[in-house]
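ping. complex inputs:
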Amino acid sequence: MQPKSVAVVGAAETTKMGKIPDVSVIGLHADAALNAMKDAGLKPSDIDGVATAGVSPVELAHYLGITPTYADGTSVGGCSFMLHVRHAAAAINAGLAKTILITHGESGRSRVGAGGFARSPSSLMGQFEMPYGVTSPPTMFTVPVLRYLKARGYTEEDLATVAVIQREWAAKNPRASFKEPITVDDVLNSPMIAWPFRMLMCCLVTDGGGALIVTSADRAKDFPNKPVYVLGTGESVETPMVSQMEDFTSSKAFRVSGKKAFETAGITHADVDHLMIYDAFAHLPLYGLEDLGFCEPGEAAGFIRDRNTAIGGKLPLNTNGGGLSYMHSGMYGMYALQESVRQMRGIAPAQVEGAKISVCHGVGGMFAASGTIIFTNEK
Amino acid sequence: MPRMLPEPTPETRHFWEGCKDGELRLQRCTDCDHNYFPPRPFCPKCGSRDVEVFKASGKGILYSYVINHRPRPDMGTEPHSIAVVELAEGPRMMTNIIGCPQTPEALQLDMAVEVVFEKQTDDISLPLFQPAKG
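pong. complex structure:
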């Protein structure tokens, strides 16, 4: 992908977020899509490419009345939307489509028109993980963490500190689900979910959605809002079974995706003004800081404890409050992308003044997949 | 409410037959000597189809785990471990640790564990692990 050859020209979340018992999954996709089209000044007939996960791109295109020449149904979990942005950039460069709509919608809390989380008992996960009680993210994503803590010398307090600092960011965000300040003790005294994970180390479960519209950079200046250029991209996948990840202290998919994104963007870590790391659970930002190369292995917890990622710190991280405090419908990657776009447009509730480069890093499944998008607001 | 049980496929049947017979069966590549799990009819390291099934020692160490506190009617009423064991032969596998209190104090990382087979049905026995004796 050529850096800055495509741009986000439309971005929006669903009108409501949190608890939305009166809208189905496909309805959330459509609400977000219509909001993003309004943001870009477009109609469904202006869209010639669609990408989504959770529902089929066929379902999405038909529901919205779009006749696409490009459809991407890549579904690798919560970072699918990072992959959609990456694929859309390649597709636009290759002339497959001009204006691509990427949507997410999920009724995570209310479960209106929502499918299940079931895997076949004949799949590898069904045979070799699920019989042991490994059937939902709190008992899957957390499994490598005791090994990670031991290898790095990190503690429960370090996990709790991630949640505490993200809550500080959430307090600045009117749309955040949780805004009340919390302390490390609050986190460590919250109900036990799966040792060593307490409730406040786990993401929310809410309803919502978001949508992005991507087009070529040379058309981007004709849209109503400030274009946000795609500077670099990466993606990778590792394993559907968390027990089979190569290294319990580092995600291979994170490393490969992050490296590719930084290489294509042609930037160094010092160039990064703003960072999003998908935080389904409190350990993700620690793995992310290390695997993306912002911290040496063993330094991420101290980096967060020393408030480098907090308000006023040198590397503002998860400035919407993250999956731990902002919202998490199930596939959170879209909300991380939305926050990066807001920061690059200069309209985020907790705006990082003067930010020019934002790195948005997603995880899919339980360390199964990864996608990284680097944005800039400078042409 | 029973726990979810595996449905063996042609590629994994030898493993589940082994569990039924009280053997933990892994696979080994006869070209590159790589031991691997979960089962598949080729080597995930070099791609060779020249692989064999062998009986593993059933010994390993507790590599990582969580103790689930959320209600799981299929797993009993008390908090229970969900663990990854690193086998002496190299591969890691998901399991539960039984035969000891389900507490952080009793479940120490790197402690020696050994396989025990727990019969679920006539066809399926699950490989669980307990603290190694002696």
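Chain A has 13 helices and eleven strands.
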